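Friendly challenge for the regulars: who can give me the structure tokens for this chain first? No prize, just bragging rights.
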Amino acid sequence: MGQKPRILIVTPEVTYLPEDMGEQSHYSAKAGGLADVSAALISALFDLGCDVHVALPDYRSIFDGYMTKKRSWKLEKIRKRLDEERIHLAADRAFYYLDTVYSGYSDKDLKVSLAFQREVINNIILRVEPDIIHCNDWMTGLIPAMARQLEIPCLFTIHNIHTMTSTMAEIEDRGIDAASFWKQLFFKKPPYNYEESRDWNRVDFLTSGVFAAHYVNTVSPTFLTEIVEGRHPFVEKCLKDELSNKYYAGCAAGILNAPEPEFNPAVDDLIRYNYGPKNHRKQKAKNKTCIQKILDIEVDENAVMFFWPSRLDPVQKGCQLLARIMYDIVSQYWDAKLQIVSVASGEYQKHFHDIVRFHGLGNRIAICGFNEGLSHQAFAASDFLFMPSAFEPCGLPQMVGGIYGTLPIVYNTGGLHDTVRQLDHGNNTGNGFLFNVHDATGFKWAIDRAMDFHFLEEDIKEVQINRIMIESVLEFNHTQCAQEYINLYGKMLKRPFLV
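First reply, four minutes later:
Bragging rights claimed.
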């Protein structure tokens, strides 16, 4: 891009920052995939020599907790080379004492969002003087309007279809001068004028981010086209329309996320036995017996193991499909010693437990809450993973699965469509198993195809898994992801913007 532009990434979540960015590199605040993606993008941009700055809330309690919890295995890697000018912590008591990024209460989350955006708008942007502002999700949805007012090119990334609303009166009460950029905001009702709308007409944060940003991206190309084509009824019409406007104006793109570099079985320090493509067969078997002992299920390295890696949310993740066929697949493949390991939290965990208890399947199925170390070990131990999401903005477990030689079984949608191709061992193509009808029958069909692969000769399987592991590492990495963002930043800087 010629001389380096100064990029300010505004994110409410991050899992880590590059070691050389400063002693604040230890900060971690995670609620979901946005944290991992933000951390990885920032790190990759930094490694590529970009002039990257980060704005995030000063979650003092969360950061202190992370320091205590993670010091033993992660913080020892940090070289304390202070560069405070790159990491910008928004200061406010609204998030000093939070235990989690999101409280689950809309009024509290809105208060945190407004406090964060106030500091970014009033202080951090003026201090950093960025050439580009890169905002992420609804918690930053007002900033693109201010960026447009300041004539700073702004990219708005949609990770999750979730939003909040507020009135200009409430926004201003929190210290943000909404009157200066109110025309760039998206209201639930068309505004007549500022005075008429100030007290009652609610501003949609996510749609405002799309409406005001110069460019918008989703975290997979297919999810973007699915929204534009109206294939997801849960996406509100206002968001669909504004995203469509950007799409047809050539100002929207889909850029796939990538898993963190530490998700690699060759270097993963959270798994018992490290391995690579050449020795995966032997080492995965050892990892399998290890997790079987940990979870107190039948110990057999020849058992076929399926892994559930995603939160147990029946609205998005499709866990109800597994519940409907869990007993059937264990029974059908009893002689193959089929096992299921779920390392995930969420409302459907109780249903899984009930099924296991009712049918007495405790020696074949283990249902656990999310645990980072156990999740890594499950990736290293399992043969296949379940990801039957009804919709998926991107998804990371299916990419991680390929890297670990754990083949994904997915519904053909969104980011899953972009990253998983039907396995055809005869032609040495594909990396997983897809189904096209989102119901238990379709899901069961894909599981049967995975079992067909399992029953092939060991040498045939070994060749395919070797190929898939190598291809996954080359395809799903942050250098490639960051380069796509750099290309988009360059495109934004070259385009004349009408403000």
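Residues 14-32, 66-82 have pLDDT under 50 and may be disordered. The first helix runs from residue 33 to 47. Your move, everyone else.
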